[in-house]
Amino acid sequence: MSELSPMNIYQLLPKTNCKKCGEQTCMSFAFKLVSRERDLEECKPLYEDQKYERQRKELEELLKPLESATETGMIIHPERCVGCGNCVVACPVNVSEDPKGSAIGLGPKSDRVILKIIDGKVQSYNLETCRRFGKNRVLCNGCIVTCPTRAIEFV
Ligand code: SF4
Ligand code: SF4
Ligand code: SF4
User: How far is CA 98 from CA 73, 107, 114, 154, in A?
Assistant: First the structure.
């Protein structure tokens, strides 16, 4: 299956920029689908025009993980984590809540951080403070891009 990315979603949308969903472009709609600000059903042509049926089914399949994910969409794969601590230092919430520990790589001392290494594996806490949580979420990806083993994913 394709990766859940705005570009892959865009490729399956009608690409007519008809604006019926309220967005100026299909690309903008694709971004908002990934950030869960919009629902696929809001693209009316996909449901009304038979010629888009195959694409609609593929989109429904591609977007399925979003329905079962946590509010932030974070999934940790402990078996891949090597405990390097990169994500702990990269997370902006860790750094602002715990400048003395997380920011200089000594390991968080505060209970208000999101990521900690426990027994050599990353664990998550306080996910409601993650930049990806809630209405004003942004597509923060500090923890993913700094991980050498793809142990953290967001869907
Ligand atoms: S309704 Fe669908 S086809 Fe029209 S602009 Fe929105 S995403 Fe594109
Ligand atoms: S997405 Fe950003 S705020 Fe959330 S855990 Fe990862 S680095 Fe921290
Ligand atoms: S999740 Fe990745 S970056 Fe974080 S400690 Fe594990 S291996 Fe390192």
Answer: 24, 9, 10, 23
pTM for the full predicted model = 0.60
Measured CA to CA, the distance from residue 130 to residue 48 in angstroms comes to 38
Closest Cα to atom 7, ligand 1: which residue? 26
> Distance between CA atoms of 49 and 144, rounded to whole angstroms?
38
Q: 99: which residues sit within 8 A by CB, 6+ positions away? A: none
CA of 16 to the centre of ligand 3 (A): 41
Q: Look up the CATH architecture of domain 74-154.
A: 2-Layer Sandwich (3.30)
Distance 61 CA to ligand 1 centre (A): 18
User: What does the domain layout of the chain look like in residue ranges?
Assistant: 6-68, 74-154
Write down the CATH superfamily of domain 6-68. Answer: Electron transport complex subunit B, putative Fe-S cluster (1.10.15.40)
Q: Give residue-wise pLDDT tens across range 49-74.
A: 999 999 999 999 888 766 655 667 78
